[in-house]
Write the structure tokens for this entry.
Amino acid sequence: MIVIIDYGCGNLNAFLNIYRSNNIASKITNKKEDILNSTHIVLPGVGSFDNVMKSFNKSGLREIVEKKILNSTPLLGICAGMQILSNKSEEGNEKGLGWINGEVIRFDDNKIDSSTKTPHMGWNHVNFNNSNLFNGIKQNSTFYFTHTYYFQPKDKNDIISSTNYGINFCSGINKNKIYGVQFHPEKSHDNGQKLLINFSKI
């Protein structure tokens, strides 16, 4: 059972619709029992770093999710749900989860040209390594982005995909069975659907 964590930050039904249309058992939940019995966890996130982090902490679900990932349950963080996997963010003052070592930084408008001003919004190409998250997806495929900050891991080996928006930035991470993507697979049509199905098979 894939659980999509409901802590007040994310477009949850889009994930549920994709999984159910592919006959993959899934549920939107904020119940610890459901998370405890899950095989996979999707951690969506929409909003500022501090608001997302505060909402997750306030949900009371952090401890049970941490317990699950320590027991090797695959987790996929989406957009701000990926960013809170870090230690901290330039966007706010809250401490991140620290599950993948790194920080979230802002695009520097002085280093990107006038055609790529922030926020980074819309379709862009993703280049990836041989991560099983991208099985069956063509190299340089497009996914949908909307963000002004991005995750910069301390260990480059944690990067599984990158995207160019004036600069090359990390758009996908993986450490052990913790994954994160900066783009929105639930809004990325066939490529995003394929990625979410791939995650269900990890």
